[in-house]
Amino acid sequence: MTQPLLEVRGVSKAFGKVQANKDLSIHVNPGEIVALLGENGAGKSTLVKQIFGLINPDDGEIIVKGDSTPIKDPSDAISRGIGMVHQHFQLVPVMTVAENIILGNEPRKGLKLDIDGAREMVRRISDQYGLEVDPDAEIEDLPVGTQQRVEILKALSRSVDLLILDEPTAVLTPQETDELLDVMKSLAANGTSIVFITHKLREVLAVADRVYVLRDGELAGEVLARETDQAGLALLMVGREVVLRVDKGEPHVGEEVLKVEDLVVLDDRRLKAVNGMNVSVRTGEIVGVAGVEGNGQREFVEAIAGMRPVVSGRITLSQTDDITTAQPHHVHAAGVGHIPEDREKHGLVAGYSIADNLVLNRFDEPEFSARGIRNFAARDENAEVLVEKFDIRTASIGSSAASLSGGNKQKVVVARELSAEPKLLLAAQPTRGVDVGSIEFIHNQIVAARDAGAGVLLVSAELDEILSLADRIVVMHAGHVVAEMPAKDADRQLIGRLMAGGN
Q1: What is the rounded distance in angstroms from the CA atom of residue 129 to the CA atom of residue 415?
Q2: Residue 132 to residue 281: CA distance in whole angstroms
Q3: Within a domain: 376
Q4: Residue 317 and which of 147, 152, 175, 363 are 20 to 30 A apart at CA?
């Protein structure tokens, strides 16, 4: 029997009172692709960080090619043939591909940096693994799919036997995702073992040999990918059956609730992120904005929400209410709910209680305040109702938002914004980093808001989410709309090409 490349035996890790991993045992064989699935907070990232030496286990052992010597740090892991590609790229934007790949492992000729040797090494491993990149291209000029390739090449340049990929397709187009999955298959065929974390069940079934499912830090199951399906994996992840496709009826479309005309907005570098954007949303419909991240979607939503100044153009609510220069509080008062892209930065105050977070933008309304004095009884009653209605898993409404899992944090934001019964809901990446059970719940709440008469502007880098939820789809590239179509007529491959700037 072939010796496993990696064995994890009885590993446990706690952070204070939180047991992130409990007696976990897995193994990875040479040339095998193993997927790690689980809800947010299930312990997946904690496990791979221990394998890569970023943190040390409290108990158990990690055995690499028969060697049970503890992995001291990432340098030790790399020296033992383990590479890791993090969810957030670890690249220096102003440096070239070759410079990034050799960073920390620089080849030299005498006392001088051997940049020519670095370029040649990049060309060689690019050809070897079928990952074509230009060694002299600067990272900031490359699309995210190519940056992902650079990250993988950087790991492979250290001669890895095991490659860990953490959410590797989070910011890729459908075509780039398919290319990456092909690369993973090719790497495995040539003997490289892969452990990858993803929320996308389709990808697991497309490339994995085996799947480990974690729940509450423990192993909930192990299955062969060829012997299961998406429903089976979802059942293991959350312990109940999950409806993976949104069940929604035909929209009952009414009057125009949002009109964006010729909008121009700058990004943080004072460059045009939104350049002549035109979009409309009517009551009773979900308009999905599809696009690769970094094409102006964040700035577009923030401008509508009053969080970012508008250079030119016009934003109108309900045909008469000009909110182009309105501040966030006024935008909310005008009937706009906002599920922000970054819940930690813009959606919650981590140190505040759940009850306070549920009225974060309404605390001064008559229901919760009178003559400047807050009505804490009304605040708590509101919280008890919303915690039950939106299935927020918490010990107490007085617990801090920081104590919640990612999915439950998102439910707090969704509950707060929808409980105000907005005319327009801005939903930016509403299920990012959220487990499959919470995704199902949040999707149903968005559809319920539509059916109650709200207009919904859904911005998501997840094309499956757009195709599942939207009634009408607009494709955004380079700061403006490049195509618009009814969702029922949408072609996945065509949208993918449009997202990448093709036709």
Answers
A1: 47
A2: 41
A3: no
A4: 363
Residue where a domain stops, chosen among 238, 271, 286: 238
Give the chain's count of helices (H) and strands (E).
Answer: 16, 23
Count of structural domains, the chain: 2
For residue 405, the model assigns a pLDDT of 76
What token pair was written down for 411? 């439910």
459 within some domain: yes
Q: Which regions of the chain are under pLDDT 70?
A: 1, 40, 170-171, 244, 433
Annotate 283-339 with DSSP letters as a single string: TT-EEEEE--TTSSHHHHHHHHTTSS--SEEEEEETTTEE-TT--HHHHHHTTEEEE
**Both tokens assigned to 349:** 């105050």
List pLDDT tens digits, range 477-496.
999 999 999 998 888 888 98
455-460 and 286-290 strand pairing: parallel
State which residues form the domain around 481. 256-335+422-499
Cα end-to-end distance, the chain, whole Å: 51
Q: Tally Cβ neighbours within 10 Å of residue 376.
A: 11
Q: Assess if residue 392 is contained within a domain.
A: no
Do 85 and 216 have their domain in common? yes
